[in-house]
Amino acid sequence: MSLMTVEEYIQFLQGKGFQLQEDAIGFIQFGKQYTNASDELTNTAIELTLKAQKDFDGSFYVSLLEMLVSNQIKTRPEAIKYVKEKELISI
After folding, report:
1. Greatest CA span in the chain, whole angstroms?
2. Which one of 46, 75, 82, 91 is most buried, by most CB atoms within 10 A?
3. What is the pLDDT of residues 38-86, one digit of tens each?
């Protein structure tokens, strides 16, 4: 997956049939600003939230994003490795 902005990634997901409601999009923007996360890390947190929860769970997403940022995770591969090692999500 090439690096997309958060807005492009949301449009990509909607094109795949994931209908994110306005409150979910608000949570996504809030989490990104609150944690000062990059687009790559934000998009990865969205992806992992959807895989873990089968739907968008705003509090799960914000917690995951906070955890990734606080552990200096910068890239999608690092984030996936981290959640697997910590057994946070079975992916």
Report:
1. 33
2. 46
3. 999 999 999 999 999 888 999 999 999 999 999 999 999 999 999 999 8
- Map out the domains of the chain as residue ranges: 21-86
What span, in angstroms and rounded, lies between the C-alpha atoms of 84 and 11?
Answer: 27
3-state class (DSSP) for residue 56? coil
CA-based radius of gyration for the chain? 12
Q: How far is CA 45 from CA 62, 75, 91, in A?
A: 8, 11, 13
Using alpha carbons, select from 36, 46, 59, 58 the residue that is nearest to residue 7: 46
pLDDT band at 91 (very low <50, low <70, confident <90, very high): low
The predicted model scores a pTM of: 0.92
90 φ, ψ (degrees, to nearest 5) = -95, 105
What's residue 89's pLDDT? 77
